[in-house]
Design brief:
lyase activity, 11 helices, 8 strands, globular, DapA-like, TIM Barrel, Aldolase_TIM, alpha/beta, Dihydrodipicolinate synthase family protein, eight-stranded parallel beta sheet, binds the ligand N[C@@H](CC=O)C(=O)O, single chain
Length: about 300
Amino acid sequence: MKTGPFNPNLLSESVFAVPPLARDADYQIDADENEKIIRFLEAGGVRSLLYGGNAVLYHTSLADFDDLLGMISDSAGPDTTVVPSFGPSFGIASDQINILQEFDFGTAMLLPSRDIVDSAGIATGIRMLSEQYGKPLVVYLKHDRWLSPEDLKSLEDDGVISWIKYAVVRENPAEDDYLREVLDVFPSERVVSGIGEQPAIVHLRDFGITGFTSGCVCVAPRKSMDMLGSIQGGDMEMAESIRQYFQPLENLRDGIHPIRVLHEAVALAGVASTGPIQPMLSNICDETKSKIQTALRTMKVID
Ligand SMILES: N[C@@H](CC=O)C(=O)O
């Protein structure tokens, strides 16, 4: 794993893969299977990994968190940057920082929660957690106006934000007043589109933000990296064709459940055996599996 302070220049150099987390039959983190996912991504050119929602870290125990950090530190290649996520509750986040401090990650992302929070309180939480960690944190904007632009600006002025994952889902990503307000107070070079390939062209081309995160990259890393390169090189026709390439799987994720479908898709694509998913989620049924196989065939990921 690449260690040392997080370098924001990396945000434009690789798609940020957001992998599922493989577990064995006893629900323990399966280091071998997770390493297969990491090697597959690295072989496709990916150099940035974000363990968060798709790894269901919202529900992880402190012991699992420790195992996870050990596993990803050991498994990621020397040129691969890894960002783990923690939280979402303040108390758990604070306990997890004690564990994070035993490892050499450049930053970590606070998972968002919509319940029992308000903007000023979230800002206080981010400030205190960053101070405890001694490093700036990744802020995950998943819900509209979760953090006001004023609070964001004051956090940026205090130097506690590493970068922002912007993932507020809009029917039309081109119409997004909150994203414009965020970009009025925070540098676009440190904002990453956080909803996969589908809104990435609009976010990068029209809003000028930097890179994108993706779950689907875990079944076709080279394609997703090519999409990033096409957008950056101004070949929007190619970028659009790759966006459409990912649609069959993304449509299933949108229609059923993005995390549960990705967890199985990675297994059905033959990348690694992902095993049982972390409770409070459940593995998908056979009917959904066969829909995923059809999508993967359309994408030519499997025969
Ligand atoms: N939610 C997106 C990007 C990751 O955060 C996905 O899973 O594709």
